[in-house]
Amino acid sequence: MKRLISANSSDMFKMSKEELLTSIKASEGRTILSENIVLLPPVANDITNAEIAKAFGADLILLNMVDVFEPKIWGLEPGGNFVEKLHKLVGRPIGVNLEPVDEEASMLESRGDMPEGRRASVKTIDEIEKLGVDFVCLTGNPGTGVSNKAIIDSIRLAKKKFSGFIIAGKMHGAGVDEPVITQEIIEEYIEAGADVILVPSIGTIPGFDHEQLKMAVKAAHKAGSLVMSAIGTSQEGSDKETIRYMAIQNKICGVDIQHIGDAGYCGLADPENIYEMSKAIRGIRHTAAVMAKSINR
Questions:
Q1: Which of 59, 94, 219, 249 shows a CA-CA span of 20 to 30 A to 49?
Q2: Helix axes of 183-192 and 148-161: crossing angle, nearest 10 degrees
Q3: How far apart are CA 61 and CA 149, in angstroms?
Q4: pLDDT per residue over 32-51, tens digit each?
Q5: Rounded to an integer, what distance in angstroms lies between the CA atom of residue 263 and that of residue 256?
Q6: Pick from 87, 88, 89, 115: which is nearest to 101 by CA?
Q7: What domains can you pick out in the chain, each with its CATH number?
């Protein structure tokens, strides 16, 4: 088995869930996950944002706002299995966001509507298992009312029914009046069965500092889970210097995966910022290899 930053597409698709997680761990903090909104016209109108993200250095692709029952993804012809199509186009593991909405959560902002195909439920988890999704991210978009309690319940459900790996946590408040992350919450995520703990990136939410991120990393690693830092506060559209600073600070704190969000003009981070993050945490040699390597290898 190869570390993910050195693996070919054919290697990745042969990996079990456990092997893929080990491959990420072996990459020593140099794995990049790019999230994109599937409902917006992409950077290049005739191809998917997933293809753009891969071309600029992403190792893992996360789809946001995809209705798993009625999938509409710009750049893909309708019909058929969208996961299989994207596997062929980008040669990378594909994940989807499912949102554990808490109807009783105390909100700080107005709650938005959400179709059933985006909510974390028995039906949606069964559906992503049928589709062959490689990983699921249990988190919340702004104003969705996703709570930590609901995330914990959804982790337990996904652990029973989904064979891919589970990322869980909040990159911001999702409109709910509660702490985004605490040590107790991390421990509950791990106990429920999360494979990867999602936490905010350094510099994204007020008051989340290096010590808190190190605490999260130590707690997760001690329990055998990985950690993903997330830039999900529209700062994925910041200047290159900001992206480089965040990336290096997150790596210093020990995260295993670095997420860069979807809040560019076209539902994707500025592609050059994916490239800058890649150069910052793994250098030009690995960056060039990821960008240039054929998905047919």
A1: 249
A2: 20
A3: 26
A4: 999 999 999 988 878 999 99
A5: 22
A6: 115
A7: 28-292 (3.20.20.60)
